[in-house]
Amino acid sequence: MIDLPIGSTFELIVEWLQNNLEPFFDAISNILTFIISGFENIFLFPPSIVIIIILSLLAWKLSDRRIAIFTFIGLGLIVGMELWEETMQTLALVIVSALVALLIGVPLGIWASRNNVVDRILRPILDFMQTMPAFVYLIPAVLFFKMGKVPGAVATVIFATPPVVRLTNLGIRQVPTDVIEAAKSFGSTSRQMLFKVQLPMALPTILAGVNQTIMLSLSMVVIAAMIGAKGLGEKVLTGITQLEIGLGFESGVSVVILAMILDRITQALGKTAE
C-alpha cells in the first residue's frame, strides 16, 4: 500500500502558518476579543430584567405575542436558575460568530450563483466543511489562537458558514427566468439585477440560511467550551466531567430556551420576507 503522508503534510502547513502569519492571527484575535467582550458588556451591564424586556419586545415586533411571552418566561427561568451571565456570554459568542459567518457566506453565495466555476470549486469544500466532525475544527483553532473564546468563535464560524453559502446560491439561482428576462428587457445593469431583483426575491431562502447558521453557531459554541470558551457550554461540560447532573440539566435547558428563541425570531424574519 502507498503511504500517503496527509497528516504530516497538514502539520507542516499548520507549522508554516504559525511561524509566518502570527501577527495576522494576533490581529484577528484582538479584534474578535474586543467585539465579543463588547457584546458581553452590553448584555451584562444593565439588570437582567431590562434585557429580558428588550428581547421580549423584539420577539413581539418580529414574530408575535406568543413568542414574546415565551421569550419573557424562558429568560426569566434562566435567571431563576442563576445562569444569566453564562447565557449572555453564549449569546454574545453566537451573535459574533453568526455575523462573521454571514459576512463571509453571503458574498461567497452570491459569487457562486453568478459563476459556475466558483460554484463547482466551492461545492466540495462546503461538503468537506459540513461532513468533518465538529471537534476537528477545534484543533487548528487552538493552534492559531490558543485557548479561550476567540478559537471558539473561529471554529464556530468555520462550522456555521456552509448553510448560508449554499442557500444564498440556491435562492438566487431559483429566481424565475422570465423575471430575469423582464428585468433585462428594461435595461437593468448587472448590479441592478442583483440588488433590485435577485436578492429581494431570494431573501426568504437566504434568511433560511441565516437561521441555519445561527442554530449551528449555537450548537458549536457549546462544543467550543472544550477549548475554554465561556458560557453555557462550560457549565454543560462541568456537569458531564464532575457528574453534576442538576447543573448539566439546567445548562441544557438554558441552551434549548436560547435556541428556541433565536430560531422562532429568525423564522419569523423569513416569513415576513415572503
Automatic annotation (TrEMBL):
Compartments (UniProt record) = Cell membrane; Membrane
Q: Which Pfam families match?
A: BPD_transp_1
| GO annotations of cellular component type | ATP-binding cassette (ABC) transporter complex
Molecular function GO terms recorded:
amine transmembrane transporter activity; carnitine transmembrane transporter activity
Q: Which CDD domains match?
A: TM_PBP2
Q: Does the keyword Transport apply?
A: yes
Q: How does it sit in the membrane?
A: Multi-pass membrane protein
- Xref: InterPro entries: MetI-like, MetI-like_sf
Q: What GO terms in the biological process aspect are recorded for it? A: choline transport; glycine betaine transport
Highest taxon of the lineage: Bacteria
Instruction: Please report the stretch or stretches of sequence annotated as the ABC transmembrane type-1 domain.
Output: 87-266
**Keyword Acyltransferase recorded:** no
Spell out where the chain crosses the membrane.
42-60, 67-84, 90-113, 125-145, 201-227
Its family remark reads: Belongs to the binding-protein-dependent transport system permease family.
Query: What is the recorded name of this protein?
Result: Glycine betaine ABC transport system, permease protein OpuAB
Q: Which species expresses this protein natively?
A: Caldisalinibacter kiritimatiensis
